[in-house]
Amino acid sequence: MSPLAVAYAALLYLSAAILLAGVGLKIRAYLRTPAPLKIPTTPAPTTTGGVALRLAREVVFFESLFRSSKWTWLFGWTFHVALLLVLLRHLRYFQQPVWAPVVLVQSVGAYAGLAMVLGLAGLWARRWLVDRVRYISTVSDHLHLVLLLAIGGSGLLMRFVKHTDIVALKAFTLGLMRLDLQPLPADPALLAHLALVALLMMVFPISKLMHAPGLLFSPTRNQADTARERRHVAAWALALERRS
Amino acid sequence: MATAAFDTPKLRPYPVIPLVAEGAMAHSKPFVASPAIQSAIGFPGELTEGWEQRAIAKMGELLQKYRSLRVYMDACVHCGACSDKCHYFLGTGDPKNMPVARQDLMRAVYRRYFTFAGKHTPRLVGAVDLTKAVLDEWWSYYNQCSECRRCSVFCPYGIDTAEITMAAREIMDSIGLGQKYANEIIGKVHRIGNNLGIPEPALADTLLGLEEDTKDETGVDVRFPLDVEGAEVLLVTPSADFFSEPHVESLIGYAKVFHAAGISWTLSSKASEAGNFGMFIGNYEQMRRISLRVKDAAQALGVKRIVVGECGHAWRVAYSFWNTLIGPFDWLDARYPVPQHVCEFTHDLIQRGALQFDKDKNDDRIITFHDSCNVARGSRMGNLPGGQFVIPREIIKSVANHFHDMAPGTIHEATYCCGGGGGLLTDDLIELRVKGALPRMEALQHVVDAHGVNFMATICAICKAQFSKVLPYYGFDMSMVGGVHQLVSRAIRLGASE
């Protein structure tokens, strides 16, 4: 087996492990940290079902962002939906046979790649053009966008300009799934694409990309407004109560 | 020390988001609490050697205690959705008054000491050491947040800057850097029973005076009972209601409602304060101990219900936190919500037909309603979400004929803070208070021009005091602001007078 395939297999296994373990540890920390007071941003749902609906609207439609800033919503929502379609499209590299829904998404997924890059470009433009957003942007904010744009760009290059050997690639990825290492095509665009994706997976748990699970743990969004009906005492607060 | 001169912002026909003006409010700082004030409520007297380590240790402790803080330190993506939502940014242009930048003052330190990226690549992620210069910025800008939570409405992850401001103030208090205004008040509420420091004899005297005044006005013996055992209802109200204008007009309104409904009630000299500045400084134990006074007073007096007067942050603490802090309330009458807002109380009586009004007595007033931030975004009234918007407006419409709301986007959960909430209602911060009121003043100007509004009703003692002070800066009459029960007071029919 070529050293290239070995190196990339190692890199992808490592980055996937870092992603899963890192996000897992973060989520465990969120779960273990109590929310000692009822702080939903009101008006808030009064039932668990209502809370689920509120969170679903945030996840699916970016409801709060829509209220805040239409431009950011347009670019941000476009990027995320397109990213979802692109990810679904990529599932075919990990399945044999390929699920029907993944087959269905193939054609639209290709154009979603374009939409994704456009969304990212819009988000990046805001970081330069809106003085408030320019003020708050850090080096890492820019680098995140550069990374995602480079991933999208290299992907589009392979889809629309210079095709890579996707049959060989699929053999490689299926091999990864089955712990049966297969050769990896030595196409520079593909190698760049995969390396950048590995980098993205590795920075995910230590970066602002944690906003994705963070939303689900945000007390202002995930608490039901039941303050008068139910007590909500954290373990450390109960200790105070016992002392007095 | 007199504050330096400053220019009151101009009211514009349409709100304009200001351009970033770096450092525009860097000079704004509240007075520092003396060692005596600090130690009276259990905090170190002043900053001493080694404060950096103690501050970081405290931050670590808070990260273990509050999921909000932990998640909000990680989740921000710097999207800028909040950047034009804070009234202090809109009024000053200082970019550190953008919620995201205010949060970043703490996030930079969090990253440096608690995250992999910040420990190893601080430059890349904007992580910084906690130095005296950083602490000075904290001191300035965490005292330019009124904890109004408007940013949390608009944040795609619900990040609530109030949670971060509270944590920052808690950390600063724990190393001996406390805010004079807030911490002095907390000392007073424990020592005397209320934020204004009114002792029992003065309170009793005031209430007697109010009975006489109300008799002169109406010819009816409306009582203002104090420490009456066995009363049905304990009314806990901000102490400003006893002494300040226009607050006292609402107190008279509550008394008339109790009178007209024939429900026995009492105030307590032990718990002669609904306000709870423990929330403003983010200190759970202070908040709990201040709340416990109410429980103790209610049990000592043997009341069956607790009703809370017109006070925004007090209602947030009472509605959202009391059950957790000092509950359960199984010793009170379960047929009524515990606690109950005085607007819920009055609204309920109106709906049951127990109160009658002469609405035309308020005909000289063209009224609008300012939603107070803690009521709007941190609590509820009634059974349905949003009841906190409906109920006060329903009361106003029941007692007056002319009502006009301010523009959408400036009311309900998107309401603008008065500019003086969150423990900032002090003259050492007057420039901030005036400038922070700008978005509300522009919305008010709009209904003044469109409908001739001449009265802005609100249900918060801080809003009332703040507006009385800042309205004149913008060319409005200070008496334009008042309480909802001030309107009730004028229109309500008291049986014996007919």
Low-confidence stretches of chain A: none
What structural category arises from helix and sheet content of chain B? mainly alpha
Number of domains of chain B: 2
Number of strands of chain A: 0
Classify the oligomer.
heterodimer
Q: Order of SSEs of chain B, N→C?
A: HHHHHHHHHHHHEHHEHEHEHEHHHHEHEH
Elements of chain A, N to C (H/E): HHHHHHHHHHHHH
- Provide the helix percentage of chain B: 40-55%
Please indicate the percent range of residues of chain A in DSSP E strands (runs of 2 or more).
Answer: under 5%
Point out poorly predicted stretches of chain B: none
Cα-based radius of gyration of chain A, to the nearest Å: 22 Å
Please describe the biggest sheet of chain B, giving its number of strands, its sense, and whether it closes into a barrel.
Answer: 4 strands, parallel
CATH fold name of chain A? Fumarate Reductase Cytochrome B subunit
Structural class of chain A: mainly alpha
Gap between N and C termini of chain A, in Å?
70 Å
Summarize the main sheet of chain A. none
Helix content of chain A: over 70%
**Continuous helix count of chain B:** 23
Describe the structure.
- The complex is a heterodimer of chains A (244) and B (498).
- Chain A has 244 residues and is an all-alpha fold.
- In chain A, 72% of the residues lie in helices and 0% in strands.
- Chain A is globular and about 70 Å long.
- The N and C termini of chain A lie far apart (70 Å).
- With 498 residues, chain B is mainly α.
- In chain B, strands 2-1-3-4 form a 4-stranded parallel β-sheet. In chain B, strands 5-6-7 form a 3-stranded parallel β-sheet, with helices on both faces.
- Chains A and B meet through helix 1, helix 3, helix 7, helix 8 and helix 11 of A and helix 2, helix 3, helix 5, helix 7 and helix 9 of B.
